[in-house]
Design brief:
- There is one protein chain.
- The protein has 406 residues and is of the alpha/beta class.
- It is built from 16 helices and 12 strands.
- It folds into 3 domains: 235 residues, Vaccinia Virus protein VP39 (Rossmann fold); 62 residues, no CATH class; 92 residues, Outer Surface Protein A, domain 3 (Alpha-Beta Complex), CATH 3.90.930.
- The N and C termini lie far apart (53 Å).
């Protein structure tokens, strides 16, 4: 059964490469910047304790048509291996390799489940949009965990249950109509989309169909895929734990931030819950996350998790996330940042703004608190203020934290 499903998935991507291939990797990076799983973008989240080595060994597991070349081009000091089942996708990646002279990129037609055949380990494994298409996603994550270095980190993307409710309703309808991932099924899907009412959960918050449905490959991937499952937040946590790994955080906390959607007594009630329960509440309430982007590591790395329930946070080094800016005036300050579902905005106090002004990517929280601007506060006041402020800014995704071990 697994071989049958895997072959069906392979044939689909041979016929309809997805995501659609990009023409010029260099131009793409100049226009859009690095991928969010790129160590040059997410380095602090991947290794808050500091990058384990400069010449990273990177695996793009299910690299598609462009991911591995983009990572290789943006990280010339690293060696990148891209594996995929689809010859068509690998051919696109090969063209990028030749065009940009990517001597640090190796491409192999290998199943993710057979990654052990490479006989090597990796500092960073990227697997976005792949595991949820396997007959046994748990086996896929275990296979990747087996080749992850002890100090390594993994960036994963899985479909989200709440935000894809409309997708699965349409998938079920098309299965009942006998549509498959072929030309006939594509025509039927296109015809059915004409009748989707404006209140259907497939319709985005902009009142339109998802952008992915603009081209044939997107329609096939979203509505006609032979193997597709999604995860709630609790299921993500179980998925990670079952593989013997540790959940290391979301790519963007804003998508699970209670402060963004709640206030008053309800916010206090939710914030009293364990972190994973908070995230589950917001995921269910907002019904926006059609995907979960997150990081995992091996249990040995759990000591580097960002947490604020001990005084260790005083050694953290704050980094203001790209795109974050301060708006308003002294009477009403607002911290803003773009996010996948619109601008993320939270009000901040003048004291919090002063703390952020001192955040240069080098000084720790403790060093920032020694600044004269905070000297008038009692020691306990300073640390309690910093703890609350840093945790709130971290929860909203505006600030990331590196970790000092000394």
């Amino acid at each position: 059964m697994e071989d049958t499903v895997t072959e069906a998935v392979r044939k689909q991507y041979e016929a309809y490469s997805y995501p659609p291939p990009i023409e010029d990797a260099e131009k793409f990076l100049k226009q859009w910047g690095p991928l969010t799983c790129d160590p040059r973008f997410a380095g602090v989240q991947l290794w808050p304790e500091g990058r384990p080595r400069q010449d990273l060994r990177i695996l793009c597991a299910g690299c598609g048509s462009s991911q591995a070349p983009l990572i290789a081009l943006n990280n010339p000091d690293c060696s990148v291996v891209g594996i995929d089942l689809s010859e068509a996708s690998l051919a696109h990646s090969n063209r990028h390799r030749d065009r940009h002279g990517l001597s640090n990129l190796e491409l192999r037609q290998v199943s993710l489940l057979d990654v052990a055949r490479l006989n090597r380990s990796f500092d960073l494994i990227i697997s976005t949009g792949v595991l949820h298409h396997l007959p046994d996603p748990d086996a896929g994550l275990r296979a990747l965990a087996d080749v992850l270095d002890l100090e390594g980190s993994m960036a994963i993307m899985l479909y989200g249950t709440a935000g894809r409710a409309g997708v699965y309703l349409l998938q079920d309808t098309l299965r009942r109509l006998g549509a498959g991932p072929d030309a006939g099924g594509l025509r039927m899907a296109r015809e059915l989309l004409k009748f989707v009412p404006p209140n259907h959960p497939l319709i985005s918050t902009t009142g339109k169909l998802p952008n992915d449905l603009a081209d044939d490959a997107g329609v096939v991937d979203m509505l006609l895929h032979p193997q597709d499952r999604a995860y709630s937040v609790p299921e993500v946590m179980t998925f990670v734990e079952t593989a013997g790994l540790v959940f290391f955080g979301w790519n963007d906390n804003a998508l699970y931030c209670a402060d963004r959607f709640l206030s008053g007594e309800m916010l206090d009630r939710v914030l009293a819950l364990p972190a994973a329960e908070q995230w589950a509440v917001i995921d269910n309430l907002a019904v926006l996350n059609d995907r979960h982007d997150f990081f995992v590591r091996k249990p040995q790395s759990a000591r580097f998790l960002t947490r604020f329930d001990t005084d260790d946070y005083l050694s953290y080094v704050p980094f203001i996330r790209a795109g974050t800016r301060l708006a308003g005036d002294a009477n009403a300050l607002m911290l803003t940042r773009p996010s996948p579902q619109g601008e993320m905005r939270i009000p901040i106090s003048r004291a919090e703004a002063l703390l952020l002004e001192q955040a240069d990517g080098n000084r720790s929280i403790s060093e920032i608190l020694s600044h004269a601007v905070f000297a008038r506060l009692e020691p306990a006041q300073r640390t309690n203020f910093a703890r609350d402020a840093c945790e709130r800014l971290w929860r909203s995704g505006h600030v990331l934290f590196g970790r000092r071990n000394s």
